Amino acid sequence: MKKLTGRVTLPSQQNFLEETKELMDRWGADALRDSDGTKLDEEIKQLDAKIYTTYFVARSHNDFAKQHPEEMQQLYLMSQYNTAIDTELEVSFLTGYFEEQIQPDYLHDPKKWWEVIDRTTGEVVPANHWIVKKETNSLLIFKAKPWHEYTVSFLAFMKWDPTQMYNHITNDWRDKPHEIPFDVRQPHSKQFMRNYLKTWLAENPATDVVRFTTFFYHFTLVFNNLGKEKFVDWFGYGASVSVAALEAFEKEKGYRLRPEDIVDKGYYNSTFRIPSRAYLDYMDFIQRFVAKEVKELVEIVHASGKESMMFLGDNWIGTEPYGAYFKETGMDAVVGSVGDGATLRMISDIPDVKYTEGRFLPYFFPDTFHDKNNPVIEANSNWLTARRALMRKPLDRIGYGGYLSLAYKFPDFVAYVEKITDEFREIYDTINGVKPYTGLKVAILNTWGRIRTWQTHMVAHGKWYKQAYSYQGVLEALSGSAVDVDFISFDDVIQHGVPKDVDVLINAGDAGTAFSGGERWKEEDLLSVIREWVYHGGGFIGIGEPTAYHREGRYFQLADVLGVEKELGFSLSTNKYFTEKNESHFISQDIQAFDFGEGMKNVYALREVTDIIEHTNEGLQLASTAFGKGRSVYIAGLPYSHENTRLLLRAMYYAAHKEMALYKWHTSNVHCEIHVYPEIKKFAVVNNSNVQQVTDVYIENGEKYQVRLEASEIKWEDYTNER
After folding, report:
1. How do 209-212 and 307-311 pair as beta strands?
2. Boundaries of each Lacto-N-biose phosphorylase central domain copy (predicted)?
């Protein structure tokens, strides 16, 4: 059979022509790209491949940026908390920040744009009660209240791009200047942005795809005084702030933002926070501005006969591919980093583009490619988790980034990527455009809804966090499961009810977060709509602290639906006497050992009819109950694993009253899955592990047969095969 080629993007660099040609052949690459820190020479650009060229809109132009320092990008920052021991308090507001990255903005009047807050009372300190001492970068409060805490919210310029700073430190780029980000909202920067792009396009005729990395505003990434990450929020809009933006916002929205609306008590409106109306208005304001400016750049690119591609990372703030304005940009393609199945689906499900591309891991940087490390391990883990999601909704292309010369030094890695690229093309050519079999429709219910499609419980684009992994596993499990997944907000439910095609609602998260819902659960319409929906046959799954908001004697506001409640210490005198476990339950049939991650303490069953599936010394961990004609399931936490993927699948089918439908297409072995494509009468049995597996396979007509799969093997079958 002829080897499939194409749909793969290879990073290359100067003086690496022959090796590039070799790897193009082995990996079947049909596109070449540069990376941050590399360039393609003319010989490489003449190879038979599509040429991607990285393009920085608002950085990497220091000659211009130095001419207009007043147009550097800005952000609001908050000082450390400072305790007054007298009526005068001097606050060194730069303490803890990296002064190579930021500098205070003294061009705009601090009395107008800064804010001092008494954090003991929450009151704003009048501007005539403090002065700024520019020579020491400090602020003196001279009518302080002793033993109160104070913070200073100050406007600063960001004089070093965070991504270039990270790459600078990682690769020891001692000879490279610090790249200064500038704000395209400002007049000189806006004109430069357009003019330079036109000039650049004319000077780069070999470029086929302009890979915008990305556009204007970086996600919030601030470094500490040691040059380490201090605060990082992949969704943060903090670096889009400027005096010009604040003035335009006031004119458009009719009210003025406070610094506190941005610094948010030092939480900086993390995606885990329930957003204020002011912050939602600000996000919308930035998104519309970004979409308008992006559209103009895309039109310039199209006029030159080239394609526009957006990197879903770095300066992506305001683009929001699941937001209201993304379609207006006219973008041809989106590429993003694939850390796991959830991040793959975040990219592959993006609407309104011609194609999507995933940059797989590891990145070809020296922190991974060195003598004491085997990069195949990370590549294998990355591929197996991402492949599950590919089987549901494939990307159109895959690729890598970084220094190709580093990867070339590891022949086992080169051979493994050759295997990956071949397997990817086989999957794509078989199932692209084919809707996979779906047994259920599931909706993730939280504050954000659709705009955070496949993005819940992310902290820094897929990084592991102790407080998040027990919930992130939910999306990871769903990314490759045979269910349709939607993302709906509390406002969606209040205004429109639960969509008619949804079988199961999932609410997962810690109390008070945007994902659990916090104070949204005091809204009677929200509670009533969901209760009625479950009562008449809907399925509800709560994970962690679902519907949690303490009021009217309840902590879980849908405790009646869930059949469980959490002890807060107020009802210790009331006996919690329902503790007997149900030794056999549909949900737990395939599970050898439970893993609830961080789990949950002090959850207990409310009534005798609650089926307790797992109970430990910490309290109830897994249970189900009936509510009218509907069902609910409570799970204390769900880190990603093959076992937990199966547990969640069973929980969803049980909650939906569709237990027997689970076996329509099914594997008995939790390390294996079946992906079915009715339109083409094919299915694939997949081994998601690195060891040989044997499984029973249940097919559509109730028949089952046994199959043996080698490590990470896929076996494709036709419906009509005789066994």
Report:
1. parallel
2. 441-659
* Percentages of the chain per state (helix, strand, coil), in multiples of 5: 30, 25, 45
Show the domain range for 587: 440-661
At 219, list the tokens.
């996600």
Cβ neighbours around 662 below 10 Å, total: 19
Going by C-alpha positions, the residue among 529, 396, 516 that lies closest to residue 447 is: 516
Q: Is residue 396 one of the residues assigned to a domain?
A: no
Q: Which two tokens stand for residue 226?
A: 């040691």
For residues 285 and 236, the answer to whether their CB atoms sit within 8 Å is no
Mean pLDDT calculated for residue range 500-508: 98
- What's the CA gap between 410 and 371, in Å, rounded? 9
- Counted domains in the chain: 2
C-alpha closest to that of 549 among 572, 565, 525: 565
pLDDT tens-place string over residues 105-124: 999 999 999 999 999 999 99
* Residue 722 reports pLDDT greater than 60: no
Residues sharing a CB contact under 8 Å with residue 86, sequence separation 6 or more, in sequence order:
144, 146
Q: State the pLDDT at residue 702.
A: 77
| Gap between the Cα atoms of 393 and 690, Å rounded | 23
Pair (497, 587) in one structural domain? yes
Q: Look up the CATH number of the domain holding residue 529.
A: 3.40.50.880
The CA–CA distances, whole Å, from 461 to 271, 273, 339, 457, 526 equal 12, 17, 8, 9, 30
Determine the longest span between alpha carbons in the chain, in angstroms: 88
Residue bearing tokens 């990434």: 221
Strand partners, 188: none
CA distance 512 to 548: 7
What's the pLDDT at 721?
Answer: 54
* Residue 524, H or E segment: helix 524-535
Determine the pLDDT at residue 1: 53
- For residue 65, which phi and psi values (nearest 5 degrees)? -60, -35
Provide the CATH number for the domain around residue 699: 2.60.40.1180
Better-predicted residue by pLDDT, 36 or 501: 501
How would DSSP label each residue in 638-656? ----HHHHHHHHHHHHHHT
Task: Check: CB of residue 481 under 8 Å from CB of residue 389.
Answer: no
Catalytic residues: 314
Higher-pLDDT residue of 3 and 213 is 213
Q: How many angstroms separate the CA atoms of 293 and 545, rounded?
A: 41
Q: Does residue 214 have a cis bond before it (omega within 30 degrees)? A: yes
Q: Are residues 695 and 569 in the same domain?
A: no
Can you tell me whether residue 364 is helix, strand or coil?
A: strand
- Cβ atoms within 10 Å, residue 501: 9
Asked whether residue 287 is domain-assigned, the answer is no
What is the sign, positive or negative, of the torsion defined by CA atoms of 33, 36, 38, 42?
A: positive
**712 and 589: one domain?**
no
Closest CA to 200 of 312, 53, 65, 401: 53
Shared-domain flag, residues 536 and 617: yes
